[in-house]
Amino acid sequence: MLSDDQIRSLLSKFKESDSYKKWHEHRIERYKSNSEWINPDSIKKLTDDELRQRFLEYYKGGEGRQTFNQIYRDRIVRDISLFRKMLLHLLNEEIPIEQRFRDVVDARGDHHIDGVGKGLASAFLMDFNMDKYCLWNNRTENGLNVLGWKVYDWGDDAGTKYVKVLSALKKLRDDIAPELKLTFDDVDFFLHFISAEEEGIRLVQDLTEEKEIIIPSPREEWIQEIIEENFDEIIGNKLGLELYEEDPESSGSQYQTSVGRIDFLTKDKKTGDFVVIELKCGKATDSALAQVLRYMGWVKENLAEEKNVRGLILAEGIDDRLKYAIKFVSNVEVLTYKVLLQIARTEAEKTGERS
């Protein structure tokens, strides 16, 4: 976990970064424009066609903060009266935010619309009032993972999770570096910066000097969980992949099929092709190849349609049988990983050494 001093240093460098200077004004302008219609008074006055058009424009670009699944765009406003009621409920501050968020985001919530997940609901809230509400999406999760912050329990409902995320981001905004006068939009950009921007990733690496000790993986389930929680940093950004999503509330991790459970079902960000990832603890054998080919066949027949399907075996090592078998399979790749135990001095110890 990064210390508050380390995070303060990162926040200061972020505000001086080229990325911040390039995008800050644009994001503020979009917030001002969005807040003109994302408020109860305007929502009540807009005609059905005006409200639908405002939403479609808003959803298409994600306002430069996030990418929405366009499959759900028209479905969300299919019944414009339900959409209007959902928005008004979400922005009704006479109701506790935990309840409002749960009612809208949970699949069984009273005001839930298929396609509205935590990213869209929290975007509406932040564009309604940036002083009170933050954005919460996968980029937020990735940034919090970089900081080493475990914000909520997986068993919490959506409303409870959002309140805990809001509290964590308030700490970043108000407590750690109040002199920077950050907004919730700045904090959202910061979390993306340190987890996905090359400049930010490098700053984190430079800040955490470390001694690396290679250790064997304790168990496959543990590796699976680590990769799932940090997918973009470990796999996605390096290989251009993203987890497959059937709906806003599910991912391609531990994807269940009739022929077994796929460790990670992903898609190529550029081509849209499916990539089946099979994870192995220790050395992988040729049985892993048979397994991934079986999953690839199922994906091609049931999901891929005209898209291609590739395979990836991710293991600590590979034995000779797999090395020979893979030579004649062009659409399956084998990559290796290692688990590191990182030892680093604290900032206080470094200061003590120099005194």
From TrEMBL:
Organism of derivation: Candidatus Methanodesulfokora washburnensis
GO MF annotation: an example: DNA binding
Keyword DNA-binding appears in the UniProt entry: yes
Keyword annotations from UniProtKB, A to Z: DNA-binding
The protein, known as: DUF91 domain-containing protein
Record CDD domains: NucS-like
Ranges of residues in domain Endonuclease NucS C-terminal: 252-320
Keyword Methyltransferase: no
